[in-house]
Hints:
By secondary structure, the protein is an alpha/beta fold. It contains 15 helices and 15 strands. The radius of gyration is 26 Å and the shape is elongated.
Amino acid sequence: MALHLYNTMNRTKELFVPQQSGKVSMYVCGPTVYDYMHIGNARPVIVFDVVRRYLEAIGYEVNYVSNFTDVDDKLIRKAEQMGSTVPEVANQFIQAFQEDIEGLGVRPATVHPRVTDNIPEIIAFIQGLVDQGYAYAKDGDVYFRTQKFQDYGKLSHQNIDELQFGIRIEVDERKENAQDFVLWKGAKPGEIFWSSPWGDGRPGWHIECSAMAQRYLGDTLDIHGGGQDLQFPHHECEIAQSEARTGKSFANYWMHNGYINIDNEKMSKSLGNGITVVELRKRFKPTVLRYFMLAAHYRNPLNFTDEIIGQAENSVARIENAYANVEHRLQALQPDESKTLESVNAELAAKLVQIREMFHTKMQDDFNTADAITAWFDAVSEANQLLKRDDVTYVELKAIADVFDDFNQVLGLVVTETNDLLDEEIENLIAERVEARQTKNWKRADEIRDLLAEKNIILEDTPQGMRWRRK
Length: 471
C-alpha cells in the first residue's frame, strides 16, 4: 500500500512522498482568537488531527504547526467592545480554544506559534520582499505586487484579471493594482502596534503564516492544510509571497476540508446559525462530535442536524459497547502466551488481517475515514460474535482488542478511562450494591443505583457478572 492524497493545487490524487524520508512537515492555519471556536472551526481541527495521527501510525515523525492569529482587526474591535486589550482578549480565547480541542480529543500541535511572538521574523520577511521589488510601501502600509508574481491564482485556478476578492481583501486607492494585498498595516490612533522600517503598525493577515511556516518548518512544506474557505485569498496570497521570497515551492501538497451546513443552510453570522464547540460539548460526548466529522470524507460538505448527530451517538455507542465488553471479558480470562491466534482460530485471524487491510487501504486513499470506520464496524461484528461464545479464549479477544486499539489511535472514537480513583469508587459502590441485594437491603441497592445513574454510569448483567460503563 502507498498513501495517496488529493492535492488541491493539481486537483488530483497524488502519491505522497515527503521531502525527507520518515519525516513530514505539516502546517495548518489556526484560528483568529477573538471568539469561541464554532463547529466550522472544529472540522479542520479534527480532520488534521486524524491526518497527523495516521501519518504517525504508519511510521512518520510529524512536525505539525498550527498558528494563533492573536492580533487582527477583529481582535481590536473585540477588545474595544469588552473594554479590554488585544493581548487579554487573545489569551482568553486561546485558553478557550485549548480547552475545546482537549475536549474534542485533539492532540496539541507540535508548535502553536502566535503572531505577536514572531513580529521580527514577519518584518524581516516583508523587508526581503521590498528589497526584491515584490512589495512597496505607501503611507505607512506595505503591499504585495501581485502582477509581478506570474503564478498568482494557481491554487484557486482563477485568472488574476477575473479574481473574485474575498474577506480581508481591501479596495484601496493607494494600491498600484486592485489585486495587491497588504503585508503591513500602519497603526491607527489608539491601536496596538510594533515599530517597523515603514512606521508603527502590525502585520497583515496573510504574511503571518508565510513567516511562521518558514521559521518552524523551512522554505517548503510537505503538507499545507485548512478549510476550503481559505483557498482564496489566504492560501493564494501565502503562495505568492512565500515563493516570491524564496524562489521555491511553498508546499508540495495542499489539503482543504469541506464546509459544514446547519440544517441544510450555510453557516453564517447573518443567519445567526453558528454553533460553538463549548455549546456542543455540553450536549454531546466528544467522541460523538469526532464521529460526526469523520463519518464523511473530509473534502465533502457536512450537514449538521439533530437526526444525523443522533445517528452518530448510536454508532459511537455501538463501538464503545463492543470495546468495553471485550475488555471486561478479557479481565476474566487468563493470558496464554503459548498459543497464537492462527493456532486457536485461523478463520478469525484471516478476517482480522482482511479488516486491517481494509482500514489501511481506505485511510491511504486520501484519508477516507468514512470507509475506514466501516472496517471498524466489521471488527465490532466479529467481537460481538465472539462474545456470544462461552468458550472464547484470551488469544481471540486480545486480537480483537488490539485491532480496536490500533483503529482508535487513529480515529479517537473511544475515550479510555484514566481516572483510577473514580473507577475504584464505582467498583466499590457496585460491590456494595451486590451485597445489599444479596442481603435484601433493597433501599440501599436502589440508592446506589440512583447515585450511579446520576453519574451517568450504566450497570449491565453479563455472564461474568455485573459490569459498568459510562453513558
